[in-house]
Amino acid sequence: MTEDTTRDRLDALESRLAYQEDWLDTLDRALAAQDRRVAQLERTNDMLRERLRNLRQSVDHMSDDDAPTPSDEIPPHY
């Protein structure tokens, strides 16, 4: 191989390496953003589960006497 050919090949490899490093940085940033988003969604999911559990407990503790009867409810046309 001539020195020019070797230099061209080295330049091509350096160019490819630079592209791959840039692409790797881009993927790393995207992965970090997704990780933050997943953590946020997990916190939201945990909060909603807790609220749902509390609502279920509230409904379970309500007695039938607390529920309005049909005679207690006034129709909307009155």
Give a verbal description of the structure.
The structure is a single chain. The protein is mainly α. The chain has a domain at 23-60. It is 76% helix and 0% strand. It has one helix spanning 3-61.
Question: How would you concisely characterize the structure shown here?
Answer:
With 78 residues, the chain is mainly alpha-helical. The protein contains one helix and no strands. It has one helix at residues 3-61.
Strand portion: under 5%
Using only C-alpha atoms, the radius of gyration works out to 32 Å
- Mean of residue pLDDT? 90
Q: Which spans of ≥5 residues are poorly predicted at pLDDT below 50?
A: none
Output the helix-strand order: H
Structural class: mainly alpha
Instruction: Tell how many strands the DSSP assignment holds.
Output: 0
Q: What's the N-to-C terminus distance?
A: 100 Å
Shape, principal axes of CA atoms = rod-shaped
Helicity range: over 70%
- Number of helices, counting only DSSP H or I runs of 4 residues or more: 1
Largest sheet: none
